[in-house]
Design brief:
The complex is a heterodimer of chains A (about 400) and B (about 180).
Chain A: H1 2-7, H2 9-17, E1 31-44, H3 47-53, E2 60-75, E3 81-89, E4 104-113, E5 116-122, H4 126-129, E6 183-188, E7 191-192, E8 195-202, E9 224-237, E10 240-255, E11 258-273, E12 276-287, E13 311-322, E14 325-337, E15 345-360, E16 363-375, E17 388-401
Antiparallel strand pairs in A: 1-2, 1-17, 2-3, 3-4, 4-5, 5-6, 6-8, 8-9, 9-10, 10-11, 11-12, 12-13, 13-14, 14-15, 15-16, 16-17
Chain B: H1 3-22, E1 27-28, E2 32-33, E3 42-43, H2 75-84, E4 90-94, E5 99-102, E6 105-106, E7 113-121, E8 131-140, E9 146-149, H3 154-175
Antiparallel strand pairs in B: 2-3, 4-5, 5-7, 6-7, 7-8, 8-9
Helix pairs in contact in B: 2-3
Classes of the chains: A mainly beta (about 400), B alpha+beta (about 180).
Chain lengths: ~400, ~180
């Protein structure tokens, strides 16, 4: 038997070619994943807006959101787990345009152990990772939404946001994306009876100019140090699922002409029972007035950028899921300080109904219909107003997760 | 918002969470990710549902269980068992249940006795108690019929040791 044992080198070679997993350290093995989501979108802009801008928009378009993930991890002999995650944008979205070729939008290394997990690199901040907001059956809400995903401060949407109308940085969602995927260090603590804490330190929330971070290009006007802390509580009590999150991010613009602080508060929650999920969230972005760069009524200067304005917004939604089906309704509203000269506000309102049918694991048929309205602080002109837009959008899509 | 206050808050919460949570027994080392367009974070123990199954195209992103991809038991123990019993004809081998059952085998030197071996791999981890071997022996009686014969108790243990030795060799080779 010993002879047999030693002689079987062919099997050893075969073993090397297949997997070699064990509890102790081994080479990092690459894992491939990702998603592909394509929508056929019908959108009807306000004719007054099209007259005002002199631009006519197509009523039908095909839009996609595609990413390929490369990841791998290994467990060291001392018990530490270490891994890498790289996410490649794979077309169908604005970030692949020639003007913004940063198609790897997230790329980071993580180290995890009993002490928690450290994430170093380009990834959303720890508050974002823990954030809870209104449910949407099609996953077509917030920063990832075709209708909600952008505004003049970042990204673009099916119903075009007039440049004068300001909203949240990073799109019409409550998830804190002041820094999007700028390089940072994030710590997430182990979940303790349902409670998870996270914190991030971001040396420059605007990312680097060579890599305008984020597929929605949430590039900030000024160089900025930021840090944030967040918490998530997720637990189930007798069939009732509870998720609560809150977080705070503080930023400091270190540019002589724009001495200003920036704070961001978020809170959100979801309750789920017997297929129903009710959720909502709230976000407040506030720029300090001390530099007067970003007008807030009392400020002397007029805001020159869509970024770093004072914006408050919330969303709320309800979802029902039964077997492969899910349907939802969600509502979002934000109000932003416009020009410093008055106390009026820009307002963005979006609501949508979404549905999903799960064909097989990872394959979903999606549909969304909704309404978006972008109102500048100035009153609306009867005709040819480039500062107000509103309209319907209807879309159906197919989503593959792999 | 006072910047010093904010800075202190961040540092204090960070330090508290490290110190307090690492010392607690109720902690679970699962960490959140948030998929684009998702309404809530997905914790590390909630798998993504994909067309290639929960673990994605090339297998598990979060491994460390010691199991082989695609099979339900430890891959080193599995290959070592097949290797060790390679001289016998194998009747069934189920990598998901971790069983290898050989056919009856007569040693050429002793045509009047034959052996059958069952191997059960019990764990996805490479560990000494992860493999269990049963050996059966039959011999011809005066009529030429096969009858069960008691075997030495240590024989199963020796076979287990051979498998573990082989598994260790495979494991060492795989990390070089």
């Amino acid at each position: 038997m010993k002879k047999v044992l030693i002689a079987s080198t062919a099997l050893v070679a075969a073993g090397l070619m297949t997997t070699g997993t064990a509890s102790a350290a081994e080479k990092i093995k690459l894992n491939l994943g990702g998603f592909s989501k394509w929508w056929v979108v019908g959108a009807w802009q306000d004719s007054s807006f099209e007259d005002g801008t002199g631009v006519g928009y197509a009523n039908v378009d095909v839009k996609g959101d595609n990413e390929v993930f490369f990841g791998g991890s290994t467990k060291l002999d001392n018990g530490l787990e270490i891994g890498v995650d790289i996410q490649l944008e794979a077309g169908g979205h604005t970030e692949t345009a020639a003007s913004n070729p940063d198609v790897i939008d997230e790329s980071y290394i993580w180290i995890a152990g009993g002490f928690g997990k450290f994430i170093v690199g380009s990834e959303n901040n720890g508050v974002y990772l823990l954030h809870v907001n209104a449910p949407d059956a099609a996953g077509n809400w917030g920063e990832g939404g075709v209708l909600a995903g952008g505004n003049s401060s970042g990204g673009a949407t099916a119903i075009v946001s007039p440049t004068a109308v300001r909203g949240f940085i990073g799109g019409n969602g409550t998830a804190p994306r002041i820094d999007n995927d700028a390089e940072k260090i994030t710590y997430v603590a182990p979940t303790f009876y349902g409670l998870t804490l996270g914190a991030s330190y971001i040396p420059n929330a605007s990312g680097t100019t060579s890599a305008q971070k984020g597929e929605d290009n949430s590039l900030q006007a000024t160089s900025m140090e930021a840090m944030g802390v967040g918490a998530l509580y997720a637990n189930t009590f007798g069939g009732v699922g509870v998720k609560l999150s809150t977080g705070f991010i503080w930023g400091d613009a270190n540019v002589a002409s724009a001495q200003t602080d920036f704070t961001q508060f978020v809170a959100g929650g979801q309750l789920s029972y017997a297929g129903f999920t009710v959720g909502g969230s709230w976000r407040k972005d506030k720029a300090d007035e001390k530099g007067g760069q970003y007008g807030n009524g009392g400020g002397s200067a007029v805001a020159t950028s869509g970024n770093l304005l004072n914006t408050t917004g919330w969303d709320a939604g309800i979802q029902y899921a039964s077997g492969p089906w899910a349907v939802s309704f969600a509502y979002f509203q934000s109000e932003s300080e416009g020009n410093a000269g008055n106390n009026l506000e820009d307002q963005i309102t979006i609501w949508q109904v979404s549905g999903k049918y799960n064909l097989s694991p990872g394959v979903d048929v999606l549909a969304t219909a909704g309404w978006a309205e972008f109102d500048d602080e100035g009153s609306k002109a009867a005709t040819g107003d480039a500062n107000h837009n509103e309209g319907w959008a209807v879309m159906t899509g197919l989503s593959l997760a792999f | 918002m006072n910047s010093l206050w904010a800075r202190s808050l961040a540092v204090v919460v960070l330090m508290l969470s490290v110190v307090v949570l690492s010392a607690c027994e109720g902690g679970k080392a699962v960490y959140p990710t948030r998929d684009r367009g998702a309404s809530a974070p997905r914790m590390g123990d909630e798998k993504r549902e994909t067309v290639f199954g929960a673990e994605g195209l090339f297998g598990d992103k979060k491994k460390g269980t010691g199991g082989g991809e695609g099979i339900g038991v430890n891959s080193f123990l599995w290959r070592a068992s097949l290797d060790t019993l390679g001289f016998m004809p194998i009747a069934t081998a189920d990598p998901f249940g971790g069983t290898i059952i050989t056919d009856w085998y007569q040693l050429p030197e002793a045509p009047n006795e034959r052996f059958k071996v069952n191997v059960f791999i019990l764990d996805r981890a490479l560990r000494a108690d992860g493999v269990k071997v049963s050996v059966f022996k039959q011999a011809r009686d005066a009529m030429g019929q096969w009858v069960d014969v008691k075997i030495e108790a240590k024989m199963a243990g020796e076979l287990e040791n051979s498998i573990l030795t082989r598994a260790r060799q495979l494991r060492i080779v795989s990390t070089e």
